[in-house]
Amino acid sequence: MGLTATIRTRDGWAVSHAVVTLADMTGSQVLRVEADIEGAVRDVNPLPPGAYTVIVTAVGYAPAAASAIVTASGRAEVGTVTLARQGGTELPPPGPWTVDPAHSTVGAVAQHLGISSVRGRFTDFAASIEVARDDVTKSRVEAVVRADSIDTGNATRDGHLKSADFLDVERFPQITYRSSGLTVAGSDRWTVHGELSLHGVVRPVDLDLAYLGTGSDPWGGTRAAFRATAQLRREDFAMNYNQVVQAGIAAIGTTLKVELDIQAVQGDSLPRV
Asked: Residue 51 class from Cβ within 10 Å (0-12 exposed, 13-18 middle, 19+ buried)?
């Protein structure tokens, strides 16, 4: 008897703080109940038979409405009600997430000789994400990259990039990024605002972030995937080296495109697998 319902996000996660209100055809409130930790509503009190409107609300989500018919037994089964993030924006469930470096890539692309691109990546890094519960724009990202882990597939080039001409890894062994906030850029897109410390210079850098969804992994964890990009000017970080091979053409372009493919595991540490 009573009302049963399940409240989920678009990714299928429980909305444990959802409030379900049942109103009759005159608009009068008949029942108000909160979902449990599994996002389930199981009210056992019998209801008067008839047609009702179910309204579901939760902090950070757009309200949703559904119809319900209470049978002669005093029971109504609403099924699953899906809530969308306020404004149509989506992020993973709130709380801490830890970036998995074994399944993530921190890469950069530079133009070479004005006609092609050279790609590189950093192989040693750590990062954490904190998804805010009530106001997702206050979510935070922190990352640390070892500068000497640069790998472009060529030892000679890597050695030059580690030298004082570029990263100067002896003086500046770490590259860090700390976010200061997020703004909505689309239904699954965000702009991450933060500060990048690179080559001894700290400058504001925005990341264009796409949230790709969440899912279970084979080790019993939950993972979220992101893709992010940014453009940096080398001279903004005091990396002014250049070799002009001919009039107007530099050996290495002055603009770098940063490309991040990220998997994060729910929790404040990585599981042992």
From this structure: exposed
Domain end point (choices 37, 55, 87): 87
**Predicted confidence band of residue 9 (pLDDT cuts 50, 70, 90):** confident
Distance of CA 16 to the CA centre of its chain: 20
151, 113: one domain: yes
Domain boundary among 38, 59, 87: 87
Cα–Cα distances (Å) from 3 to 64, 72, 73, 92, 249, in that order, read 17, 13, 11, 28, 71
Question: Phi/psi class of residue 171: alpha, beta or left (left: φ > 0; alpha: ψ in -120 to 50)?
Answer: alpha
191 and 262 together in one domain: yes
CATH of the domain at 216: 2.40.128.110
Q: What is the mean pLDDT of residues 171-200?
A: 92
Determine the Cα–Cα distance for residues 146 and 150; give it in Å rounded to an integer: 8
Measured CA distances, 247 to 113, 243, 250, 251 (Å): 11, 11, 8, 11
How many independent structural domains does the chain possess? 2
What pTM, to 2 d.p., does this model score?
0.69
Structure tokens at 14: 């429980």
In angstroms, what is the C-alpha Rg of the chain? 25
- What is the extent of the structural domain holding 105? 95-266
Does 112 share its domain with 44? no
pLDDT in tens, 211-270: 888 877 777 888 988 999 999 988 899 887 774 444 443 456 678 899 999 999 999 887
**Do 56 and 127 share a structural domain?**
no
Verify that 187 and 80 share a domain, yes or no. no
Is residue 272 domain-resident? no
How far apart CA 177 and CA 237 sit, in angstroms, is 14
What are the pLDDT digits (tens) for 76-129? 889 999 888 765 566 788 899 999 999 999 999 886 544 457 889 999 999 999
